[in-house]
Amino acid sequence: MPRFIMTYTGLRFEPMNPDPEKIRLEDIAHALSLLCRGNGHVKSFWSVGEHCICCAKEALARGLGERMALACLLHDAGECYLSDIPRPFKQSLPSYQVLEDRLLEMIYEKYLGSALTQTEQKLLKEIDDDLLWYDLKVLLGWQENDTAPAIHISLNYAVRPFEEVEQEYLRMCAELLPSGH
Question: Cα 5 to chain center, whole Å?
């Protein structure tokens, strides 16, 4: 049995032994545009890629700069190689979390030039959690008594073709990547 997955661009990628040279934005954009949020338990399709795009737009709207916007765009990139696991279940899988953290740090090193600082991690988590609140409300009809978090972008949960999401993801990457990538 192979110890690798075949990526969209035709690379043999070993999730248990990742090679940063085989991490491609094209693979990330393609896979995340096809992965459904909430493990598919949503009223309509909403991709992980679309969520990442919204997180990046929110970072820019909050004035956090291009590095944070790119970090937000990439924050679920490991899922293109390891798959998306719902948060409650993921928290019970410490070895998976180690693999995902290692892969994400590798992705940040490759595209941001370094891992995120603790402050950057905190800011990213705030954005991710704020948008998760809206995802749960709109996509699942989740009703909670707490107040909606303040966000700076308008969310549109209309289903878009995956190709549109993929192309927007790649366009944003190109705009946000530091020179030399």
Answer: 19
Q: What is the pLDDT of residue 1?
A: 67
For the chain, which ranges sit under pLDDT 50? none
Residues 181 and 43: their CA atoms lie apart, in Å, by 38
Residue 3 phi/psi, 5-degree rounding, is -105, 25
Q: pTM value?
A: 0.94
Q: Which residues contact 33 (CB under 8 A, 6 or more apart)?
A: 47, 49, 50, 162, 163, 165, 166, 169
CA angle at 35 for the pair 8 and 128, rounded to the nearest 5°: 120
Vertex 71: Cα angle to 75 and 66 (nearest 5): 155
Nearest C-alpha neighbor of 71 from the set 120, 118, 32, 25: 120
**pLDDT at residue 146, as a whole number:** 80
Would you state the pLDDT for residue 145?
A: 72
